[in-house]
Amino acid sequence: MSHFYVPSAVTADISSAQNLAHLSPISSGLMAFQKRKGVGTILLTITVVEGRQLPVMDPNGKSDPYCIVSVGGQEQTTAVQYATVNPEWRETFQFEVPAIPQSDTDDNYGSCLIHYATIDIWDKDTLNRDDFMGRVMVPISTLNEQPTSGWYPLGRAAPKDNVSGEIFLKIQLVAKQPIPRWNVDTELLSLCKKKAGFELPFVSGDSILDFPGEAEHVEMVLEDVVVEVSKHRGIGRVYLTDFRLVILCNTSSHVGVGHCDMSMWVALNNIQSVDKGEDEKVVRRTAGGNAAFADVKTLTIRCLDFRTIYLTFMNSHQPALGVFFLPPGSHSSQSSPDSIAGSAHQLAVEEGEDASEQRLLDITVPELERLNSGDGGQSQFPNNSSHDDITRSSSHSSFQVLSKSSSSGSVEGLGILAGSGVLGVTCLAGTSTIPEKSIQNDLYSVNFLPYYVNVLYQRIAFHILNAMDSPPSKIFIKYHSTDIQLDYWSVYDYDQEYSRQGISSEWRVSRANLDFAICHSYPKFLVVPAKIEDTTLKGTAHFRCKGRIAALSWFNSKKGNFIMRCAQPKTGAMGKFSTEDEYVIRAARKCNPISDRLVIFDARSLMAASGNMLMGKGTEDTVNRYQGCTLVYLDIPNIHAVRDSIERLQGVCESSSQKKWLSHLESTQWLAYIAAILKGATTIARFIEKGVSALVHCSDGWDRTSQLTSLAQILLDPYYRTFTGFLVLIEKEWISFGHRFRDRLGHPSCPSQRSPIFLQFLDCVWQIYRQFPTAFEFTSDLILQIADHMNSQWFGNFLHNNVRDRHLTFVSRSTVSLWSHLYALQEEMKNTQYSLCSETLLPASSLRRLQLWSDYFLRYDETAWSAVDVIDIDEETSATQVKSQPDTVVWVPDERVKECHDCKQRFTRWKRKHHCRACGQVFCGDCSKQKITLPQFGYTNPERVCESCYQQNKMTSKEEEVGTTGAKLEVRTLLDGKQENKSDGEISDSDSSWEGVHENVYADDDDDDDDGDDNGVNSKNDTHEIKCVDGYF
Question: Where is the C2 domain (predicted)?
């Protein structure tokens, strides 16, 4: 369940608390406030001021916008502003924010505690339905008494929504008591710092800072979530923040048979889709031996990094014995307070039942922690071992959950009734503190799980549609304001780079595109033949598609030849031509002192190029127009074929079937496309080695052209195989020359343009690295890091389609550069086997020599996970915690499973399903033959388990036997040594005493004496007893 937060120093009256006695420990995930007599509810004030540049919805070029403001179940509407796209409303609304579900009647709970304030903008139509114009969702967790004002960009509610513009809002919480920041932000930051890879370092001046660090705000928290990736499962807590989805699985109380540490995080931009599963019932077994069906909600999250996460949200129907809301103290920073049962019992004893009821509402967390920790004496919490209560530790927190067995009809003992954990608020129950009349009529908790899961689903779906327009990096910079220095935005400098290449006097730097007049997708400065005037460049821009003229990409200082790039010409079916374009190509061809031959590499196939001619485009006529040029087709598929290939590959990698793996992989055509790109780049490199110049283009010159030119330069120039050189190459050939990252990474406004072109390039680099591992200064980890953050959008390098868009949005001043993060990790990614190689690399492009990039595509495959992950023991984790067994297991529903978890054989009428009692997975009979006892789950007799759980249990048993056997051998050695020292045929008085020792060692130990000294050796009746530490004599 999610959690809610209450202001410090606020107390509730007894009548209000008793009215809530029938509720479970429900929470809003963020901020809701309790009603109490004399204080009133918190008021959320929202002022809708104005909007600007809203979308045009009417034929007259205007719109009639109005706003619907929703907070929980409350809704208010602004007036309609007619015939404008820059409306001014200046209307203020107030909403009550209570801590209990808002309802129309006392018996019907229609909606639950709020998480977000939603502002929808609509266009008013008289005759037709109103048109949706945009949505803003404001997390309540970011608000406080200080007014929050600013421009909020409008977001989509559906992929086809035409959304633009923003609105100005003023938001404030009005309360009589101070409202501190939600402490779970600090808790999550502390936990992420302990997890490797959860905080990303980056260079800022002379310092190394963490991203996202303190800028990250938690929006929702859900407890006791079963996380499943590639059929490996864990139990933990899910945080939804404004940066990512964080999953932290318990590595102490849940470690053991059948569980893995599934802790991970997913950037919101990396989420490809989220789907709600059908309602399910699962078997949940607890330590008391109780097995019952539990209602669950499921979400399936598919990520762009080939990761599919199944989240199962548990909801246990435990009887609610009574609920009081206990706010944290004003000086408390604990978001997960310790168990307060002992403190409650002590107060009840000291002050009596009536007085304790009011005192329980006023007690602060520090007092409870002091009383319960034993600082002021031993805790007075009664021993309930005689009853069927079970205790378990909540994920990543120190408090406990006490659940009453359903078989017990009495209400005894105290406990914290929090079936899914409570954060920031604690619920107390017990007969010694709560009158029995308050719990007679309402014994079971109200199920708010569907609401919380639905809110989480809606918020993630909203992020999928709008995260690319509101990158988290801008939130980070806004949080730190001017206190941060943004470095490594100038890794690539055109002047320095072309000076390093040593271009000859035959070339010059043109500033004709300084204001992007020639081509808005090209850089400001272009290197062209020195004989070409800027007026000629403007003339040839009309003949090349998108204005992408022929410009120098790389110059070979050894031979004087070069690589140029451009887009396809607009020849059309009628064979149009441009004398300016022909003159540019001829002048470039004459710049090569070795050979005046120029090879034009068309990345498309002949059929594709011919098809483009029918649409007014095409390719060069090297027979009649472009004399001295040779045309070569490289037959590389277009973006649509590549998109279909990656989708098929994702399906194959997610499939658990092991049969015909190579056949399924071949059917995706992914490696065939990689081979075609490598073959084309190698062909270009071979021609350059012969002294021939090259001109490369595809259709528009920003996809396959970038792949070929950049890969060819890696093969030819050893500088691009260094750490810095590789980053410079990406900046020059991909970012500067206008690869459409925004569209290719899947912006919702153009889903048909999504295609993993840049990922193909990285895959090709990995293939070259695998064949020449000593030729690169960096390891493959650098390639993997770039691939990950290409989709995460946490950094500003890959946010836009071209340089012009980056300048207009001030990317270098509003986001963090990915290169600053990579430079912080440079030492970790340094190749220790690197050897400078100035020779041209010619990798094999045959499918026989290529492999699937398993480090990327298969890192979340079930074969990449161990049965039980190795646990990192930190300073706060004891050895007993690490070895502790899980106290609950959730069985996988039968309906979800079609094949055995181990052997992958499909289930049939004769091949039945069997649940492993230790991990809950489903196996066939052959894979679950073993039987062991599982006392932690209440199984006193041997029960069916899978082979993995059996082997792990066997290893644990051997470790315990080693300690026991060692203690016995030590005693036996002492006895044997004494016997060897005896004289032949003589028995002294001391020998008689050793006979007593012998008898005591092997005697029954039912009458063990516990009064021995620290060494475990006692002296009694002149007979020496040796008592071992483990209890053996």
Answer: 25-152
From residue 837, alpha-carbon distances to 381, 452, 654, 705, 772 in Å are 72, 58, 39, 26, 10
pLDDT band, residue 641 (cuts 50/70/90) = very high
* Residue 725 assigned to a binding site: no
User: Is 107 marked as binding a ligand?
Assistant: no
Q: Are strands 598-602 and 693-697 parallel, antiparallel or unpaired?
A: parallel
In this structure, the answer to whether residues 902 and 757 fall within a common structural domain is no
Give the whole-angstrom CA distance, residue 522 versus residue 690: 29
Return the structure tokens found at 389.
Answer: 């209560």
- Distance CA(209)–CA(203), nearest Å, equals 7
The reply to whether 938 sits in an annotated binding site is no
Please say if the pLDDT value at position 842 is more than 60: yes
Roughly what angle, to the nearest 10 degrees, separates helices 661-668 and 639-654? 160
154, 175, 196 - which closes a domain: 175
Query: Residue 128, annotated ligand binder?
Result: no
The number of CA neighbours under 13 Å toward the Cβ of 152 is 25
Helix, strand or coil for residue 1011? Answer: coil
Chain centroid offset of residue 686 CA:
43
Residues 854 and 901 in one domain: no
Which residues, other chains included, contact 154 with Cβ-Cβ below 8 Å and sequence gap of 6+?
A: 54, 121, 133, 134, 135, 136, 163, 164, 165, 166, 167
Provide long-range contacts, Cβ within 8 A and 24+ apart, for 135-140: 135/462, 136/167, 136/169, 137/459, 137/462, 138/169, 138/171, 139/30, 139/115, 139/217, 139/219, 139/242, 140/28, 140/30, 140/31, 140/44, 140/97, 140/114, 140/115, 140/116
Interatomic CA distance for residues 511 and 372, integer angstroms: 74
924 carries a ligand binding annotation: no
- Among residues 940, 958, 976, the one where a domain terminates is 958
- Across 299-313, 447-461, 607-621, least confident range: 447-461
Three-state DSSP at 790 gives: helix
Distant-in-sequence, close-in-space partners of 843: CB < 8 Å, separation ≥ 6: 678, 682, 715, 767, 768, 771, 772, 849
Alpha helix positions (H), 274-392: 341-362, 365-373
Same domain, 680 and 777: yes
Question: How many distinct structural domains can be found in the chain?
Answer: 4
699 carries a ligand binding annotation? yes
Q: Is 569 exposed, middle or buried (0-12, 13-18, 19+ CB in 10 A)?
A: buried
900 and 794 in a single domain? The answer is no
- The residues annotated as belonging to the active site are 698
23, part of any domain? no
For the entire predicted model, the pTM comes to 0.74
Q: Rounded to an integer, what distance in angstroms lies between the CA atom of residue 1029 and that of residue 681?
A: 71
Cα–Cα distance list, 266 to 184, 610, 793 (Å) = 19, 44, 11
CA dist 261 and 882 (Å) reads 12
In a domain, 970, yes or no: no
CATH label of the domain that carries residue 953: 3.30.40.10
Asked if residue 701 belongs to a known ligand binding site, the reply is yes
Please tell me the predicted confidence (pLDDT) of residue 415: 29
For residue range 176-218, what is the model confidence (pLDDT) as tens digits?
666 655 678 888 999 999 898 999 999 998 899 999 999 998 8
Same domain, 823 and 688: yes
Shared domain check, 905 and 760: no
In 3D space, the residue among 39, 36, 43 whose CA is nearest the CA of residue 19 turns out to be 36
Specify if 147 maps to a domain.
yes
For residue 698, say whether it is annotated as part of any ligand binding site. yes
Over the stretch 394-425, which tens digit does the pLDDT of each residue have? 333 322 222 222 333 332 332 222 333 322 22
- 846 and 921 housed in the same domain: no
Q: For residue 268, what are the domain limits?
A: 242-248+263-276+293-307
Evaluate the omega torsion of the peptide bond into residue 212 and state whether it is cis, within 30 degrees of 0: yes
Same domain, 673 and 762: yes
Query: Which H or E element spans position 136?
Result: strand 131-139
State how far the Cα of 200 lies from the Cα of 821, in Å rounded to an integer.
Answer: 7
For residue 233, give the H/E element and its range. Answer: strand 232-241
Rg of the chain's alpha carbons, rounded to an integer?
Answer: 35
- Residue 831 within a domain: yes
702 is in an annotated binding site: yes
